[in-house]
Design goal:
There is one protein chain. The protein has helices spanning 36-40, 46-53, 126-130, 213-217, and strands at 2-4, 8-10, 13-21, 27-35, 61-62, 68-73, 76-84, 95-101, 116-122, 152-153, 164-165, 169-174, 189-198, 201-212, 222-226, 238-239, 242-247, 253-259, 262-263. By secondary structure, it is mainly beta. Strands 5, 6, 7, 8, 9, 10, 11, 12, 13 and 14 form a ten-stranded antiparallel sheet that branches. Strands 1, 2, 3, 4, 15, 17 and 18 form a seven-stranded antiparallel sheet that branches. Strands 16-19 form a two-stranded antiparallel ribbon. Strand 11 and strand 12 form a beta hairpin. The relative contact order is 0.16.
């Protein structure tokens, strides 16, 4: 059974979160469905988002609303949405944080400069995430090795000011991402995993596929990717082990979904 959440408007189409469970109620997917028109049509530019932020009558002024909020995040213009996932009680996933980044954003020596979407599958409540203000150094001394997903690294000290990002948290990237370091031409689809300080301690707090507009615009079929795991989880629920990108049979939408939920 699939349950759809509230759709938001992005460019010429809509983006809708959904949750799917088996007949026995076991979580199967938490996903985000992009109308094909979102990636093939017109999207707001960085210039337009910056102008909207200073307008007397802004269009994008509420991240909880269907039109989202224009924010300066990662020192670049971004259009952001916060949308709850339906039927998420059996997994750590709480809400969708969706960002359209028309000018990309800093990090990885310029690796993520292409226009792209950040699809945050958050694991904490909106009140906790709303309170995150950055960029700044993460408010904890370190992350225990057993909590860091296999193959992931923290940012080097010289770029620590980019670690803790407004409305998100600290970002860890896979060491084998082809666009690292500083090769944006190779950037297509990379899974970031994020941490947030809770009562002074770091917790794995979001999974974030970053997908370029170019990649989604040309995408057809199905691809599945591993979600690298930590040794120690911050919860005792079912955790995703893979994620996928797929098109529907009529090629009218593109889905990005967490799946392979296993009890930890």
């Amino acid at each position: 059974m699939t349950t759809y959440g509230e759709a938001v408007t992005l460019g010429d189409g809509e983006v809708t979160p959904f949750s799917t469970a088996t007949p026995a109620g076991v979580p199967k997917y938490h996903g985000v469905e992009f109308d094909r028109e979102v990636v093939t049509g017109s999207l707001p530019t960085g210039y337009e988002l910056a102008a909207d932020r200073t307008s007397d009558d802004p269009t994008y002024d509420d991240k909880y609303a269907p039109t989202g909020q224009a924010r300066e995040i990662h020192r670049r213009e971004s259009l952001q949405f916060f949308v709850p996932f339906p039927d998420a009680e059996a997994t750590p996933v709480t809400f969708l944080g969706l960002n359209w980044n028309p000018d990309g954003h800093p990090g990885g020596g310029g690796a993520w400069a292409k226009p792209h979407f950040d699809v945050h599958f958050h694991m904490l409540g909106t009140d906790t995430v709303d309170a995150i203000v950055g960029p700044d150094c993460a408010p904890y001394d370190g992350i225990p090795d057993e909590q860091i997903p296999t193959g992931y690294n923290r940012s080097p000290p010289e770029t620590a000011a980019e670690r803790y990002i407004t409305d998100m948290g600290e970002h860890l990237a896979p060491a084998d991402a082809p666009e690292l370091p500083g090769n944006p031409a190779a950037f297509t689809n990379t899974l970031i995993q994020g941490f947030v300080g809770v009562d002074g301690d770091p917790e794995l707090a979001f999974l974030e596929p970053m997908l370029t507009r170019e990649y989604l615009r040309e995408f057809a079929g199905t691809e599945r990717f591993e979600v690298p795991q930590p040794s120690v989880y911050p919860h005792d629920q079912r955790h995703p082990t893979t994620y996928s990108v797929r098109t529907d049979p009529a090629d009218e939408s593109i889905v990005v979904a967490l799946q392979g939920f296993e009890q930890v």
